[in-house]
């Protein structure tokens, strides 16, 4: 009986362990998911409760390995829930940045709209997932897309008080002057909900504060009017203070906490002078409980943080809101600061607890990472083996692989190039032979001309000797005559006088 029970368990499908494929995906049990699909489960099965597909469920649970496997097996990433949400919307809502990256790598559309016209960017901004905003922006999401209410992602972030998202969107050229269908700017929405930090940041984005707080909506209301209407006293007081001050609202803070201002602006030299000269303490808190490390982490100045760490700053101090410097860096998506602070103060599992570690975006999935890597590696090896077998079968059936085609084309190109070089070499050889023949002909002509020149020079020498001998004899004879000597007689000099002509007489008969 026991053996029969074991055999029955082995032969029964994997459906017994989980009620459906969605349950297996939620538990990140990739092996059971594979078995269910092999046993006939639909990879795009819609759940009864949420109308999710398995890919929706994987993005909702942050099951990265399941997302990879489902996309590899051809799961449809464009299917929507009754609200119009795609898996991209779900990942953005839940803040699962790694799942979003997987979807982006598979060329999934990031600008799909739900029933209210909201994109995944609106969802990430509304839920404060600034890491997801960066991923969506790098993937090509439209930062200024509007929903049916005329809201951009900046409006959604300001309305929900997501300061980190407001800052991230502004860095990605998100506009703070856009108005919705009722003429409200992000500042109107932030004042309406009493989000003072967002109000301060929006103020710092403009050189003139009145450009922000003087804007009126379609009802003629400015942000201060909305804050008074909804009893947001701290926002009202802050706006009134700005209206009274001429030099800006931050001057009093600058005088009270110069080190915090230097850390916020990234002025490491001024901060070093203040701390080294003992003007302020390296862990000094401002009126909100923040240290210079909090200011540097919030603004993303990694050089300031590096120097503070070297000087022994306490990075475990929390401000009045319960945030450490690392929390601010994570919220504002300053990845270099997060990495620096994580290495400087590693996570203590005993203090945080297992659940908090799993929820931390920095160490998310750390417990299952090794197993997932080993399974992915084994899957890759199996696929490579199957691919090799498929290639051999294809070749055996007479097919030609793409790599083989490329190799053949390269060989043809090389052969053609070799033929061209051979033809060029033959041409150069014939040209060389022709030049050598011309050179031999010119050498023969030079030899012939040299022999002729030698004959002419010899004849000229003989003629010159024959002419010079008589000339020597005549010159010697002339010299003797001049001296008056003669061997045959005496030389008599005579003078000849021309006879005068006589007139002719007439002849007589």
Automatic annotation (TrEMBL):
This is ANKRD42. The keyword Repressor does not apply. ANK repeats lie at residues 50-82, 83-115, 116-148, 149-181, 182-204, 288-320. Residues 418-459 form a coiled coil. It comes from Acanthosepion pharaonis. InterPro entries: Ank_Repeat/CDKN_Inhibitor, Ankyrin_rpt, Ankyrin_rpt-contain_sf. PROSITE patterns: ANK_REP_REGION (PS50297), ANK_REPEAT (PS50088). PANTHER family: ANK_REP_REGION DOMAIN-CONTAINING PROTEIN (PTHR24201), ANKYRIN REPEAT DOMAIN-CONTAINING PROTEIN 42 (PTHR24201:SF2). Keywords: ANK repeat, Coiled coil, Repeat. Gene3D superfamilies: Ankyrin repeat-containing domain. SMART domains: ANK.
């Amino acid at each position: 009986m026991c053996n029969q029970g074991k055999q029955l368990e082995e032969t029964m499908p994997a459906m017994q362990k989980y009620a459906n494929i969605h349950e297996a995906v939620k538990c990140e049990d990739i092996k059971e998911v594979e078995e269910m699909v092999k046993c006939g489960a639909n990879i795009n099965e819609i759940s009864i409760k949420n109308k999710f597909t398995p890919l929706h469920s994987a993005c909702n649970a942050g099951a990265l390995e399941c997302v990879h496997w489902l996309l590899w097996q051809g799961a449809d990433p464009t299917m929507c829930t009754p609200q119009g949400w795609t898996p991209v919307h779900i990942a953005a809502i839940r803040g699962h940045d790694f799942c979003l990256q997987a979807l982006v790598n598979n060329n999934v559309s990031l600008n799909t709209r739900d029933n209210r016209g909201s994109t995944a960017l609106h969802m990430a901004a509304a839920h404060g997932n600034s890491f997801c905003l960066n991923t969506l922006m790098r993937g090509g999401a439209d930062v200024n897309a509007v929903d049916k209410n005329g809201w951009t992602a900046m409006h959604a972030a300001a309305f929900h008080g997501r300061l980190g998202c407001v800052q991230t969107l502004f860095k990605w050229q998100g506009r703070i002057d856009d108005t919705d269908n009722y003429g409200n700017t992000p500042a109107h929405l932030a004042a309406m909900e009493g989000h003072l930090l967002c109000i301060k940041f929006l103020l710092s984005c403009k050189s003139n504060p009145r450009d922000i707080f003087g804007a009126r909506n379609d009802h003629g209301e400015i942000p201060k009017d909305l804050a008074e209407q909804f009893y947001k006293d701290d926002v009202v007081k802050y706006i009134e203070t700005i209206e009274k001050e001429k030099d800006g609202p931050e001057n009093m803070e600058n005088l009270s906490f110069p080190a915090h201002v230097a850390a916020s602006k990234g002025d490491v030299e001024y901060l070093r002078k203040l701390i080294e000269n003992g003007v302020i303490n390296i862990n000094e808190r401002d009126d909100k409980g923040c240290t210079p490390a909090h200011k540097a982490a919030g603004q993303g100045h990694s050089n300031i943080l590096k120097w503070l760490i070297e000087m022994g700053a306490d990075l475990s101090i929390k401000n009045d809101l319960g945030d450490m410097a690392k929390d601010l860096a994570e919220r504002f998506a300053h990845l270099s600061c997060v990495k620096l602070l994580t290495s400087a103060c590693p996570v203590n599992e005993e203090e945080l607890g297992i659940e908090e570690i799993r929820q931390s975006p920095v160490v998310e999935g750390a417990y299952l990472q090794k197993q997932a890597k080993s399974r992915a590696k084994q899957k890759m090896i199996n696929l490579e083996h199957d691919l090799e077998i498929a290639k051999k079968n294809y070749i055996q059936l007479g097919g030609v692989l793409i790599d083989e085609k490329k190799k053949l084309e390269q060989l043809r190109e090389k052969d053609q190039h070799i033929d061209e070089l051979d033809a060029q070499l033959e041409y150069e050889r014939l040209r060389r032979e022709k030049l050598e023949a011309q050179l031999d002909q010119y050498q023969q002509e030079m030899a012939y001309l040299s022999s002729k020149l030698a004959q002419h020079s010899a004849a000229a020498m003989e003629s010159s000797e024959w002419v010079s001998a008589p000339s020597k004899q005549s010159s010697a004879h002339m010299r003797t005559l001049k001296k008056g000597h003669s061997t045959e007689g005496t030389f008599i000099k005579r003078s000849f006088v021309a006879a005068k002509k006589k007139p002719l007489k007439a002849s007589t008969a």
